[in-house]
């Protein structure tokens, strides 16, 4: 099948590479000529396990190509995937200008039947707006060509995107057209061993499914943040509570790990956008608003714990920071808890000495050169001469630690662990003050 993908960001590139890998002919289009040149040279702009070799192999096999030429892109595929960004507006709603620009481009250049596939996470009703834009553009050309629009949201986790694309829980396609169903079935046939995995539904239901899934997952995390904060104040250990509730299959063990708040490109943006959508239809989405505000507060707890440990005086202190990315196996720092922490530390006059296995380049890009940000080559250097240590991301390499050694490194024996990596008893026995998330007395009674 011939497939065009607009947007070579995270979603577009993973989709393009995976579809080429199962034998489709894929052309990826982006307006950023520099990016396309780098991709053609086999350079991948993001860190995603397995993606680089998959792109290179499929380019070499002639199944995956890149272009900046919109006419060529539109002419290429029967399926035209829109996978461009939908950044949040000032009011939290998704900005559709890039999506609608692609719709216009398709309307301007198409000369036969196309299926326009909304892959980007877009508010309910976007498929209608894409259809209107294409129709309007065709009318301006004096054309009345046939086309369809369907919704096919992605459910890709950063760091596991290829696995999620190829072995995801479901493939959702919002369309009522049998012709589109046939084409989408052909597109995804290589991934469908279980028939029920491919779900057809109405367009608006598909659009809402994406937001509902992310909002439900974010709700689980904010709920656990709330329980962890309560546990801290009540002298209970949230890790025991987590195991206790997870054993109920209706609750389950997944996605109930308390921590320093969710980040990334999806949850914060999607929860806000859904709340915004609710407001647009005069519905007060109280739960969604609370999920967001609990998370904002949770991202501030690392700083609060440090401030408590240092009696509110962090000026001139050097804080070692392990982990900058919003989660392991990615270099993405969008809405990462590490950023809330660093910005608060700088505001309080402290200095940050940070290490992350993948995200340091991104950190430098975001914050530039500054005296109060030192990026070092490994986790050991990060604690050298530091007053305290904070762990923001649960990278595997942070999971073992010689606590006696650490105590000797730190001017104050304070460890703030935003990911509950260690057993409080063991850390405390080494003479460290250990502030984790929701782990009873280790938190509620600092010093
Ligand atoms: C998410 C969804 O999982 C994916 O289906 C969707 O399409 C895009 O958004 P992603 O943002 O890559 O994917 O990250 P994910 O692995 O889901 O984690 C999101 C955040 O939740 C991270 O900040 C993570 O640290 C946090 N988290 C996750 C917790 O704090 N506790 C948990 O138990 C699980």
Automatic annotation (TrEMBL):
PANTHER family: UDP-GLUCOSE 6-DEHYDROGENASE TUAD
The keyword Nuclease is annotated on this UniProt entry: no
Pathway(s) where this gene product acts: Nucleotide-sugar biosynthesis; UDP-alpha-D-glucuronate biosynthesis; UDP-alpha-D-glucuronate from UDP-alpha-D-glucose: step 1/1
Keywords: NAD, Oxidoreductase
Keyword flag Transmembrane: no
GO molecular function, one term: oxidoreductase activity
Enzyme class name: oxidoreductase
UniProt catalytic activity: UDP-alpha-D-glucose + 2 NAD(+) + H2O = UDP-alpha-D-glucuronate + 2 NADH + 3 H(+)
Domain of life (superkingdom): Bacteria
Domain UDP-glucose/GDP-mannose dehydrogenase C-terminal, chain residue ranges per copy: 320-424
Family membership noted in the UniProt record: Belongs to the UDP-glucose/GDP-mannose dehydrogenase family.
Family annotation (Pfam families): UDPG_MGDP_dh, UDPG_MGDP_dh_C, UDPG_MGDP_dh_N
EC number: 1.1.1.22
UniProt-recorded name of the protein: UDP-glucose 6-dehydrogenase
